[in-house]
Write a structure and sequence with these properties.
Helices cover 43% and strands 14% of the residues. It has 303 residues and is α/β, with parallel strands linked by helices. It has one domain (46-302): Rossmann fold (3-Layer(aba) Sandwich). The chain has an 8-stranded mixed sheet with strand order 3-4-2-5-1-6-7-8, sandwiched between helices. Strand 7, helix 10 (238-249) and strand 8 form a beta-alpha-beta unit. It is globular. The chain starts with 7 loop residues before the first helix and ends with a helix.
Length: 303
């Protein structure tokens, strides 16, 4: 039996008639309900999801926050959004405000304290920033006058420690594909998320990056990637959107389109509860696509 609708006019009619009408749910609503279960899939090891596109303005940080918030919201925590920008990233600026300003460089300088068996997730409280959607944010360094850079060794040290406390690490990246920490993140990624807006130059840069990674031996990462196309403007060029989606479908595993939401596009701090329902639904489907890709990669490794 097809489930009764809860969304839109169908749901209103079911409520007004106390279920007597029993109008069925749309395909989109049924997929959303299935997605709420799919996103809970368990994994035998911590998962690194890297969000990357070398073009500025591709939506890396909003997509990172959106995915981490969705995973945290539905899975109940153990999720980290990590700004792995080689310079000054904006993840900390877009997340909810924190009571401290410590960041990834501060954590790396204190990393030895987390390498012993007595260290717990509670000790990370002085470095990460809790969010209302049940995930944490690890911001990049933005201390004026400081010139510290996270290299490949530093990234791997951080990933080793953070993987002891988080099931999912959604890792934001910078724009330099030759930066040591960029390559460290992509080379060890379990899943790649490629964000783009509905702009030809942004989309082409993401495709170039996929070709770049394939040439460097990460064809598995490219084939299992998820592209997320954000409608960053209320007026969408639907012809261009269709062309971008079709082009990415030729290269990656899945493509998900995020609708325009003024709360996300304004550049302000992002609170998951304040996002519009259409965007939150699309973010769940993006998270499901990522979980499915991770599951497929895990099965392939075990084969």
């Amino acid at each position: 039996m097809v489930a009764a609708a809860e969304w839109g006019w169908r749901g209103r009619l079911n409520r007004w008639t106390f279920g007597m009408a029993r109008v069925p749910a749309t395909r989109e609503e049924r997929a959303y309900r299935v997605g709420q279960v799919q996103v809970l899939r368990a994994f035998a090891a911590p998962q690194q999801v890297v969000v990357a596109n070398p073009k500025g303005g591709a939506g890396k940080t909003p997509v990172t926050l959106g995915l981490a918030a969705t995973l945290g919201w539905f899975r109940g925590g153990y999720t980290l959004a990590w700004d792995n920008n080689e310079t000054r990233g904006t993840l900390g600026l877009r997340a909810e405000e924190a009571v401290h300003e410590r960041n990834v460089v501060d954590l790396l300088k204190s990393i030895d304290g987390f390498l012993n068996a007595r260290a717990s997730v509670g000790h990370l409280g002085g470095f990460v920033r809790p969010q209302s959607a049940h995930f944490d944010v690890l911001a990049s360094d933005d201390v004026p006058g400081r010139m510290d850079v996270i290299d490949a060794a530093g990234f791997h040290q951080l990933a080793d420690v953070l993987g002891r406390f988080y099931r999912f690490m959604v890792i934001d990246t910078g724009n330099n594909v030759r930066a040591a920490n960029w390559w460290a993140a992509t080379s060890s990624a379990d899943c790649l998320v490629v964000p783009t807006t509905v702009r030809a130059d942004v989309a082409e840069t993401g495709l170039w990056m996929l070709h770049h990674l394939a040439r460097l031996g990460r064809t598995d990462l490219v084939r299992g990637a998820v592209a997320v196309v954000s409608c960053a403007d209320p007026k969408v060029d639907h012809g261009l959107l269709t062309a971008i989606v079709e082009r990415y479908r030729e290269v990656v595993r899945e493509v998900v389109v995020l609708p325009f939401d003024p709360r996300l596009s304004a550049g302000d701090r992002v609170t998951y509860r304040d996002l519009g329902e259409p965007l939150r639904r699309a973010l769940l489907m993006a998270a499901v696509a990522v979980v499915d890709a991770l599951s497929a990669a895990q099965q392939q490794k075990g084969a």
